[in-house]
Fold:
Amino acid sequence: MIAHQDRIAAIFDRPRAEGRAALILYLMAGDPDLATSALIIDAVSAAGADLIELGIPYGDPLADGPTIAAAGQRALAGGASLDATIELAAAAVARRAAPLIFFSYVNPISQYGPDRFAAAAAAAGALGAIVPDVPLEEIDEFAPAFRAHGLGIPLLVAPTTPPERAAAIAARTDGFTYVVSRLGVTGARREPDVAWIAGAVDRLRVHATKPLAVGFGIATPAHVRDVARLADGVIVGSALIDAIAGLDGAAAADAAYRFVSSLRAAL
Structure:
């Protein structure tokens, strides 16, 4: 059996063979409702997503900007939960949607139980989980349970991460290294600093054995095109949620398809 962490890295193989970066999209499970989320997952997959980060709604999301935080609140108000998110992922995998990885925080996984979460995530067909608030020193609280079920935990490198620590993170990450493009939380309000991103990616290349994907603040086809010249993957989240804001059902799915198609074309 191929470990899921290796399957995450393998997602970058086809885009690389096609001479492009991988397109990674973030969605909040249950926003605006679970039925619409299922339609959006299918639409994003059809539009060319290589990987989907499926956010687990949580009331205290430390890394989320106002757009994603508001999406999480809408999802929670609509009854979305960790169990419901896992069921949503399982159904999407059964429909052969784009590969899925969860995006969560330490607290929901700890409350659910790392072993229980890992078993459920693996059974659903997810490839792992991004847990942005788990420090490198505490990754071993989750890693044994995740790896026992073949799941990966991609780790983040922030602009403030010292070079030695960034190298250690790149060495320990599963699947890819998530390069945070700027200080602060997620959101699409500021232009990405392409020069800084270029330097950060170049520095990490020396140590990284796995792909490098850049996220936070990537919002437009032009952003995607610029960042894709530097990195192995481009991550878009808040801008996609903005593109479907106020919509549900087929209208939300259509808006998601059009937006993601424009990003895919930029690659």
Q: What stands out?
A: The first helix runs from residue 4 to 10. The chain has one domain: 4-15+23-266.
